[in-house]
Amino acid sequence: MFASNEGHLEVVKYLISIGVNIDEKDNTGETSLIYAIESGHLDIVKLLVQNGADKEVKITISSGGLTKSVLISEMTPLCIASKNGNLEIVKYLISIEANEEAKDKYGCTPLIWASKNGHLEVVKYLISNGAVKDERDKNGKSPLICASENGNIDVVQYLISCGADMEERDDEGRTSLFIATIRDQREVVKHLTSIGANKETKDNSGKTADDYKKNSWWTETMFL
User: Could you tell me which residues the ANK repeats occupy (predicted)?
Assistant: First the structure.
């Protein structure tokens, strides 16, 4: 696993040749394939997969584990590569038919992760290969809502150009504009407003985004 993480291709080849279990997990729940993906070592990713590594393995790392790029439960290799914005690894995993719609514990697909983290080229590639642009996580948030929430304007613009519905709501009844407003994502707010997003929508509590913004305590503490 250390060799995969550090990019030591010849060492990985040797370990495979002597029969090391490729899919063995360490005490944080990660396999050699996961380490190689997290570190961006495409050559090792390919080698491991070609020698039988499970491309759909789901890892489970507790929040008290190692402080790494993955502190989320049940993410597949494609989810991790998409979350980290590693386009070449995303392309490779899709080329070997990794499941584009596999969800983690929280219902996030690779496209949701790429949208949330602002990885436009990964978003484009996933959609061009058939990823569902309106899939939702367990809170009812779509890729567009996640991109809006995090201020990823280029992803927001692209998803809308692909037909994503800017009036869709999450499980709390909040639209992309609503969430962008309360998160103070001004560039996203400006864009959504300019193309006609409804500024007066109310959530399931009957409140508008401006109602929340007027509450200074709520504004300061909601997203800590």
Answer: 1-27, 28-60, 73-105, 106-138, 139-171, 172-204
Q: Distance between CA 12 and CA 84 in Å, rounded? A: 23
Query: Measuring CA to CA, how many Å separate 211 from each of 14, 111, 140, 192, 214?
Result: 62, 31, 22, 19, 5
Classify domain 1-104 by CATH number.
1.25.40.20
Per-residue 3-state assignment (H helix, E strand, C coil) for the chain? CHHHHHCCHHHHHHHHHCCCCCCCCCCCCCCHHHHHHHHCCHHHHHHHHHCCCCCCCCECCCCCCCCCCCCCCCECHHHHHHHHCCHHHHHHHHHCCCCCCCCCCCCCCHHHHHHHCCCHHHHHHHHHCCCCCCCCCCCCCCHHHHHHHCCCHHHHHHHHHCCCCCCCCCCCCCCHHHHHHHCCCHHHHHHHHHCCCCCCCCCCCCCCHHHHHCCHHHHHHCCC
Read off the pTM: 0.82
Instruction: Break the chain into its structural domains and give their ranges.
Output: 1-104, 133-224
Whether the Cβ atoms of residue 140 and residue 169 lie closer than 8 Å to each other: yes
User: One fold for both 1-104 and 133-224?
Assistant: yes
Q: Does domain 133-224 have CATH number 1.25.40.20?
A: yes
1-59: pLDDT as tens digits: 667 767 768 888 877 888 888 888 877 777 888 888 888 888 988 888 888 887 777 66
Phi–psi pair at 59, nearest 5 degrees: -100, 155
